[in-house]
Amino acid sequence: MTNGYKQAYRSNQFTGMPPERITLALLDGALAELERAQDAFDHKDVPLRGESIGRALAIICELQNTLDLEKGGELGQNLHGLYAFMIRELLQANLKADASKLPAVQVPLREIRDGWAEMIAALIRPASVGNAPIKAYL
């Protein structure tokens, strides 16, 4: 597949996807990039390390920037701070070539991802009120 087709595919795969699913895809993407960065550290592949960390940073920045801090309340504030911590750690990992910083980002990011996936699963699971099922919008 050429780069133009890959780009079109990537942009189209999110079209029509509910925001909850887009967030999950972004979290999965950040985790995949962090795995690539770890591989790059292991193989001393500096360009790949920088590229992978850069992509993970871009995703985490996007997640942070899309938080609605007014509606999100304390949880939104906590996530904002956690994303800021992750950004700092990833910048340090890349600048200092320090792979030991990656787990400090991967562990909480994985927990956020898993919690998000559970929330989506709970929303799409049919719940019943009396005999009438409630259908989810996802």
CATH superfamily: Flagellar protein FliS
When the domains are counted, the total is: 1
Mean pLDDT level: 86
Describe the sheet with the most strands: 2 strands, antiparallel
Q: What name is given to the CATH topology?
A: Four Helix Bundle (Hemerythrin (Met), subunit A)
CATH class: Mainly Alpha
Gyration radius from CA atoms, angstroms: 18 Å
Elements, N to C (H/E): HHHHHEE
Instruction: Give the N-terminus to C-terminus distance in angstroms.
Output: 31 Å
User: What class would the helix/strand composition place it in?
Assistant: mainly alpha
* CATH architectural grouping: Up-down Bundle
Secondary-structure map:
Layout: H1 3-12, H2 19-42, H3 46-65, H4 69-95, H5 102-124, E1 127-129, E2 132-134
Antiparallel strand pairs: 1-2
Helix pairs in contact: 2-3, 2-5, 3-4, 4-5
Q: How does this model look, in words?
A:
It is built from 5 helices and 2 strands, in the order αααααββ. It has a two-stranded antiparallel ribbon. It has 138 residues and is mostly helical. Strand 1 and strand 2 (132-134) form a beta hairpin. The chain has one domain (16-134): Four Helix Bundle (Hemerythrin (Met), subunit A), CATH 1.20.120. It has helices spanning 3-12, 19-42, 46-65, 69-95, 102-124, and strands at residues 127-129, 132-134.
